[in-house]
Amino acid sequence: MEFSGYHFISHNANLPIFKDENSQEFLNQNEVILDRKNIHKKYSYLDKKIEKSVFIKNAGNVDSITMANMMLKVAKKKGATFKQAKIQNLITTSHSFEILLEDRSTIDCDQIVLAAGPFLDQMVELIDLKLPIWNTLQRKFITPDPLHVIPKKMPFTIYSDPQKLEWENDERAYLKSNDKLKWMTDIMPGAIHIKPESGNRIKMGWAYSTKHENPRWQIQNDDYFPEIVMRGASKFIPGLKKYIDQIPSPIIQYGGFYIRTKENWPLIGPLKIENAFVVGALAGFGSMMTCAAGQLCAQHMTDQELPWYAPFFHPNRYDDPKMKKYLSNVNIDGQL
Ligand SMILES: Cc1cc2nc3c(=O)[nH]c(=O)nc-3n(C[C@H](O)[C@H](O)[C@H](O)COP(=O)(O)OP(=O)(O)OC[C@H]3O[C@@H](n4cnc5c(N)ncnc54)[C@H](O)[C@@H]3O)c2cc1C
Question: pTM of the entire structure?
Answer without folding.
Answer: 0.94
